[in-house]
Amino acid sequence: MTEEVRKEIRENLDRRVAVRVYNDREISREDMEIILDSAWLSPSSVGLEAWRFLVLDRKAISKVREDLKSIAWGAAPQLDTASHFVILLAERNARYDGQSIRESLVRRGFLGEEIEKRLELYKSFQENDMQIADSKRGLLDWTAKQTYIALANMMTSAIRLGIDSCPIEGFDYSKVNEKLAELKLIDIEKESITTMLSLGYRLKDPKHQRTRKDRDKVINWLD
After folding, report:
1. Cystine design at 27: which of 8, 83, 102, 175 (Cβ 3.0–4.6 Å)?
2. Residue 28 gets which letter from DSSP?
């Protein structure tokens, strides 16, 4: 990796902050597709891809804005100004013996006995290592964590394109799930919202300077 590339990466990382108020500039469809590819092509545990991404442009946001603002306090300014929103969803019941894990193995090219061996491995993984096989909450937590990989990749790709973003967790999960189900956007028995991502171009630089813990307190090289 050249020094020029390292410098560019660092500059992008330094510019990326949580932006809550955007100007009226629209993100192009081409740029949004690249950002969404960053989610689609993200890695997931056991290659499951137990996620889905709902994409709203300003027209779509306007149709759900008032419904969501009352139950998503952390999204209020973004719902008013963002160019696009992505709602990240996770599968609820991704057990080792469920259809989605079997389908993921077929998708990845496994056949016959190979599939059964993998399923035995995943059974042990869920029952013994993670101890989530019989916990609906545990299974959802597992798939929900994976959506954050896609979330981070979208934010990193966005800032590389000069596009700002803000991850959002400030909302009533049950009520947002119910609203999305009422709008026929999700099957509440099969999936759940995990987080939201607003995207756009900042109206102005953040009021407060970004701070971080001392680098040597969070990054520890082992001898």
Report:
1. 83
2. P
